[in-house]
Amino acid sequence: MAVYTEVDDDELEAFLATYDIGELRSYKGIAEGVENSNFLLHTTAGTYLLTLYEKRVAPEDLPFFLGLMNHVASKGIACPVPIRDRKGEMLGTLAGRPAAIVSFLEGLSVRKPQPKHCAELGAGLARFHLAGADFPLRRANALTVSGWRPLFEASRARADEVSRGLAAELADELSALEASWPHDLPQGVIHADLFPDNVFFIGEHLSGVIDFYFACNDTLAYDLAICLNAWCFEHDGSFNITKARALTQAYNHVRPLDAAELAALPLLARGSAMRFLLTRLYDWLHHPPGALVKPKNPLEYLKRLRFHRSLSSPAAYGLD
Amino acid sequence: MAVYTEVDDDELEAFLATYDIGELRSYKGIAEGVENSNFLLHTTAGTYLLTLYEKRVAPEDLPFFLGLMNHVASKGIACPVPIRDRKGEMLGTLAGRPAAIVSFLEGLSVRKPQPKHCAELGAGLARFHLAGADFPLRRANALTVSGWRPLFEASRARADEVSRGLAAELADELSALEASWPHDLPQGVIHADLFPDNVFFIGEHLSGVIDFYFACNDTLAYDLAICLNAWCFEHDGSFNITKARALTQAYNHVRPLDAAELAALPLLARGSAMRFLLTRLYDWLHHPPGALVKPKNPLEYLKRLRFHRSLSSPAAYGLD
């Protein structure tokens, strides 16, 4: 939550001169995102967001991310729209880093989503999936089932420091997921990180989706499973079926799930819980002492994983 | 350069409901200032800055700071204007901290001030001094001559770690300043921290002054001496008389300096260099390892102090 790169005024003005977005009136580094440096720009033409991509984003992935935002925006999805420079490029260089300017999206993220927010999210996610169907670029998901074992191995020896028995439980779960993970469900571009932080609302209406830096090609229903984990559990760890029903039914109304997707939903939700559990576990065990960003507790996702494992049908998610 | 306090959406919306500034459309924590948490707000009525005052600002000083901004703004000084809530109050409470909303000021600070910027600054500083003349509240300057000795004593034992002989040189200088410091020059409200970071320009024109959190009652010409140190030295430590002349003559044109002020200027500039040298020295020796904010090199101000000490008249500042 910081600005990692300071930008010199002269450099910034020279960079902006390559765009047709008016004259700079002010810019402020904003404390948003943990991976990149972001600046809010006011120009005589409007408000924009300038992002400098820091080392955790692979430069070769940027055409996918920016192209996707541009593609889905052109199909009516509310998201930041990359601004092209005078040469037509969406990606430039500033302060030695890859840099892009996108339109600024108004809206507020909700800390305590209500069922109406979940319904908006479900419909929005389905529309995003439909809009991405003909996006031509491809990016593999490094954090799907094949990526979980190396992540697990990097934390396995110390997993029981977090909770006794965790290493054994995760080993069993991982084997089960690897053995039964579905590979033939409908595929497409997924957001893959659609947490409440990344969805803006004005009132109860979804006003936009941000942060496409985990987007990739993968199983569409897996994206819905991520949202079940990210939006439908209460702070005490309990599952809120009213929110889940709002989410899944709104999704299903816009993009109907087929029978195989429906049947796989509990497994996909287990997998999604595993994915966030493993990255949180890794960060928990490996964050440098005194780091600015406090790691999130991985055990929240162990509870969610167990919940999904206990289900015998997708009816628990409100799809009937 | 960070947001120290996270604000909950619900809390923020409840706080904003006590103001008449429209509905919230977005808010971003901004990486500005090292002492407080600042949020840029977009509402249906415009753009505002929300500040949560953290522990380094004494709550009892806030009526002085906010009242001063309100007072000088009403006299035409371009600065953030505190917004009153529906009860007429400029100061509220949010997330357990004193909080205020001010109008957002467009403009860019200059990293490499040119003589034209210095002239704008000089005229702006003089207008600020005139505007503050009838401000009724008072705040003593904790960082004037009487405050330097305790600050020096807190660093004295380790000063030579920074530069050999520093402790002895500062001891001599401090005694000289204490013996000869002028106490009968024209007094008033001074900004006391008018570094380039705190002055905004649009093109070559001064568009506003920010960060009044060191403002206090003190010798007016001392404020000009602070600006001489902050604006008229090059990165290599050399003094730029063209910039100094632009600064002092523009000041003098709006608020003519009397003979005693003119004669005291080299001494005031030595004192100002001492003040920033001592706070930087303290921060240099006492900052926690791994701290987010890198301390500034105190020795830059030793060079400036020596320069001012070498002068026999204010003519070197371009006043003739």
TrEMBL record, chains A, B:
Pathway: Amino-acid biosynthesis; L-threonine biosynthesis; L-threonine from L-aspartate: step 4/5. It catalyses: L-homoserine + ATP = O-phospho-L-homoserine + ADP + H(+). Its EC number is 2.7.1.39. It holds the Pfam family APH. One of its GO terms (molecular function) is ATP binding. This is Homoserine kinase. Signal peptide: none annotated. The keyword Nucleotide-binding applies. It is an enzyme of class 2 (transferase). Residues 27-257 form the Aminoglycoside phosphotransferase domain. Belongs to the pseudomonas-type ThrB family. HAMAP family: Homoser_kinase_2. SUPFAM superfamilies: Protein kinase-like (PK-like). The lineage of its organism: Bacteria, Pseudomonadati, Pseudomonadota, Alphaproteobacteria, Hyphomicrobiales. Keywords: Amino-acid biosynthesis, ATP-binding, Kinase, Nucleotide-binding, Threonine biosynthesis, Transferase. GO terms for biological process: threonine biosynthetic process.
